[in-house]
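S1.2 Input.
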Amino acid sequence: MIIKKEKIRNFSIIAHIDHGKSTLADRLLEKTNLKGSNKSIERVLDSLSLEQEKGITIKLNAVQLYYPLESPEPYIFNLIDTPGHVDFMYEVSRSLAACEGVILLVDATKGIQAQTLAYYEIAKSLNLKVLPVINKIDLPHAQLDTTKNQLTELLDCQENDICLISAKTGLNVDLLLEKIISDIPPPLEKSELTRLKINDLTAQIHLKRRELGKLIAETKNKFSKAESYLLERLLDEKPNSEKLNELQVALSDRKAETEIILNKKRELRDLEKHLEQLQAIQLEAKVEVN
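S1.3 Output.
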């Protein structure tokens, strides 16, 4: 059977631990009737002995799902699993680089948490389509309004863009499957997609370097003049509390500006590291082809 590219959707589920990623994956498995068995998707995806022992995912794994089942030409969903532990961020990058979109899954009782943000930043840097999904809406202590506000602020989206589900009961999971079809684009050729992502990151890094260089130059110029002026005043006149306070404020401002520069340097290093990872993925693909 010839598979049409426009019928393929490659996606991943990103979530903080215990926000329901595995339960949602199981529900998708159930809806697409993979292998006609009640085996959980964790067993399909988790193959390494350490993964099974620790209950975490480390390496990139994928499972192919078909939806809707009754269609003669169903959509093919390639659910690409991501590591569930922050120690394996390189593997997360590799997994997400194989996707065109992600389901950003958030627990309605807990809201957005650190691990979700870390994964989201990777997805954003790869220009992936993000489907915001709030899980566990059936629980009595769900904080829907708060969680919706967090997502609309983070993603700059509207409330009606957010899919409200219960992975446990299956509520609205069919709606999510339809959104995967409508919102996540079909794949480009992977070599072309990786090349575009590398070009985009290279442009971002170039811009950040220019901004950082300009900021450092402006900061040096600004504070060298200010400090020279204040030191001259201290040398020319007998220091008093007012002059010493002026110098203290200037030094405090310099500390704040230095912290801004350090933060921008960290952002630049993160981008450069991600670029290196993408270039490694591109090299791996070339080696496999050859």
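S1.4 Remarks. The beta strands are 8-15, 61-67, 75-81, 101-107, 129-135, 163-164.
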